[in-house]
């Protein structure tokens, strides 16, 4: 019990870890609140609980939006460090990653303008800026899925080559990398489904998700992120 609490404290002490925890609680609250609100149409106390959870989820989402006001420089530093991906062995992975970084970099200022417009700090309409930020987020997610699928294909080829040559010393590492990419695809697809939901009505299934389904998709992607963060920290500790 004490080790679990200490591990949680270590996660909460980092910005990225805290953001992932807030994100998980945010979508988890929306999932539970949506389910309760849907099933308790005649129970007033349950309706109030469901509404409170949905309001709590909305406040946590707003909290994350405000915290992202300070993410531009870190994203810029990451994009600058990656550059044009000269260290990547595969040109497909390289250019997909460059485009992903570009979409992510443009996402932040668009969201900032939308937030500032809603907060009445600037006199512009926020709708088009929220739409643009959603499009950029969805583009980044789609590119991330394509990148993971490309990496999976390359890892599969490398695994077959090792099995043919008889060099099985790194099989476990390759399988671990493949599981990580599969998790990335799962998380990105869950987020992409929500991104489509938040597009203007008439686009695919835009606007058709109930609260509980949005919460479910977000919870799945958030748990994937926590699993990936835990796996990367375990690898760091073992090195």
Automatic annotation (TrEMBL):
Membrane listed as a keyword: yes
InterPro entries: PEX11 (IPR008733), PEX11C_met (IPR026510)
Pfam families assigned: PEX11 (PF05648)
Assigned GO CC terms: peroxisomal membrane
Keywords, ordered alphabetically: Membrane, Peroxisome, Transmembrane, Transmembrane helix
Subcellular location per the Swiss-Prot or TrEMBL entry: Peroxisome membrane
GO biological process: peroxisome fission
Residues annotated as transmembrane: 129-155, 212-229
Taxonomy, superkingdom: Eukaryota
Keyword Transmembrane found: yes
Protein name (Swiss-Prot/TrEMBL): Peroxisomal biogenesis factor 11 gamma
Native source species: Labrus bergylta (ballan wrasse)
Lineage of source species: Eukaryota, Metazoa, Chordata, Craniata, Vertebrata
